[in-house]
Give the backbone structure.
Amino acid sequence: MAQQAQSESAQRAADELDNIVKAYDVRGLVPGQLSESTARALGVGFAELVGGPAIAVAHDMRDSSPTLSRAFAEGAASLGFDVHLVGLASTDMLYFVSGRHNVPGAMFTASHNPAVYNGVKLCRAGAGPIGGDTGLAEIAKVAREVLLGARPEPTVPAGHIGPLDALNEYAVHLRSLVSLTEIRPLKVVVDAGNGMAGYTTPAVFEGLPLDVVPLYFELDGSFPNHEANPLDPKNLVDLQRAVVEHGADLGLAFDGDADRCFVVDEKGDVVAPSTITALVATAELARCPGSTVIYNLITSAAVPEIVVEHGGKAVRSRVGHSYIKAEMARTDAVFGGEHSAHYYFRDFWRADTGMLAAMHVLAALGGSDVPLSEVTAQYRRYSGSGEINSVVSDQAAVLDAIRQTYAGDKLDELDGLTVQLSDGSWFNVRVSNTEPLLRLNVEARDADRMAELRDEVLGLIQSDHGRSRNSNP
């Protein structure tokens, strides 16, 4: 009876792999979907994919992260791999270790998801991306076999598992990429959301002319103050209020694993990620004239305009880190930015780092004698809707209706359906990879035209009786 129960448990765990292995990472409920046995099996699959002789494993502040990451390490070590346990880290800190030490890496985190979730982000040596079509499916296949006992026991001696302290090295590297020692003194409110920025920010900002007002720096994977998801406007309210109350020059909000950063100006207004993309792009182009900058197709049209005006080449990409990183490698791009506040740097192994983007903003503001709202004004040209999600039962039918309605306009399907209208306004509708949603983004020359076009397209989408919710500030 006990053996049968064990077999049924293993089968359930194997079947859950189909639910937790996503397009870019692994993510699921703990322990129902992602358990220590599953993490250990994923470690075996990862080790088999990337080859030896060593890997790095790090984790965030969630209660389940230390045990899951240790189980993953044991799985990899069972194939003879040495495992560097980085311990507490932001995701970009794990990418730093992968790049600096040229080892594949695994970061245990569910990013901005609620406390009941956990997951793992994986990369090859040099922080090379691993996604559904670049190795993740193969890892899941091996993990399934391990869970079901369908693979022979390893015959090699287990590898060594030992600690690797990387926080100071990470901080020094970031400070070498953007100089902040000569900027004017700035007061900055940082909302870590009880996530990993509460661990990395003090190390990175130490000794710089920054008066830091910390919000929720205590590491707490239960997120007692608000979700660590700055993409949702309600999670920025505390930061916006604190910036105004403290008379700060700006505010920074990080997600749970601190690979994304949102910015708030001195008035408490959110600075759109497209604006930050344009700001950072100009700085990188000043340093590397004529370089390529990658932007995804729902980034503001201002970004490619500004890149070209500053002598760069703007290359459009699908949404998602694996596509951005692939385009950066293909074009040797100096920088890439996304609407979701992911920012990618050639000098950071083409990986995304919210902290480095924040440092660029601090450098631009600290080198100017005007407030951030004026620094960023030159990069704001159009009015955007933010991302509006609608639950739709027949996504294909709605997309066909949109194609027919706008057949006389310029259409492309690089990622979903993008419609470019003759007056310069545009919109994109994409199908969610994980939910029955259509995602709409609209941009136009002014707020009135944007609202008109937004409502027009939403009328078509919601003719299917969808329900919409805005998920972007």
Summary: The chain is about 40% helix and 20% strand.
